[in-house]
Amino acid sequence: MEYTVAAVMMFLVALGLNLKFNPVFQQNKKAVIVALAVAALAQLIFDNMTVWRGFWRFNDAATVGLRIPFMPVENLLFGLALMLFTVLAWECTAKRVNGKSSTRNA
Amino acid sequence: MAAEYAMYLAFVLAGTLGLKRVFGVYLGPAERLGKTLLFVAALFIAWDALAVWAGQWSFDTTFLIGPFIGNQPLEEIAFFFVVPLFYLTIWEVAKKITESRKPKMPKSGKSITVRSRRNGQSPSKRGGRRP
Q1: Confidence label for B104 from pLDDT (cuts 50, 70 and 90)
Q2: Residues of chain B contacting residue A97, judged by C-beta atoms under 8 Å apart
C-alpha cells in the first residue's frame, strides 16, 4: 500500500496548495473542473493503454488492488497530482515572472 | 518494440502541439515554462526514482530505447516534461473556453462605461479588460 499512501498524500497536498495559492481555483472553478475532467479522461485512456501494453509493471503489494480496468487507481491520483503541481507552478510563476495572462488570441 | 514508449510520447507531444495550435494557446514566456517544467519534473522524477528503488513499479525494457539515468529510463524522464506540457495546454484551453463563455458586460457595466467617459479614458487605459 506504499504507492497508495504516497499517491493520496501527493494528491491532497497538491489540491491543498492549489486551493491556497492558485488564484484560478477561486476565480474560475469551471475551468478547474473542465481541466481536471479532461486530464482524468486522458489519463484513463492513455494509462490503460500503456499499462495494458506493459510499459510499467506494478507491484501488487504496493497498491490497494483496485484497477480501472487495467491501471491501478493510484495511477489516476498520480496523474492528477502531476497536473495539479504543474498548474500550481504555472500560475505561481505567472506572478513572479511576467504578471500577465498566459493566453493570447490566435 | 524497442521504441514504443518513445513513440507514445511523440504521439502525446504531437497531440499537445495540435491542441495548442487549434486553440491558440500561448505557453510563455520560455522562462516561465522552463521553470514550471523543471520544478514538476524534478519533483516527480524524484518520486519515480524512490518508487522504483522501493520496488513499487518497474519498467519493461522491451519497450525502451535503452539508456538509463540512475534507475530511470530516458523515456520516463521525457514523460515528466511531455505530460506536464499536455496538462498545461489543457489547463489554458479550459481557462480560455470558460472565460470566453462568461458574459462580456457585467450587470453594472453601464455605470462603468459612464464613469470611463466622464474621465475621458477608455476602459482599457484605465486597466479594464481588453476586448
Answers
A1: low
A2: 29, 31-32, 35
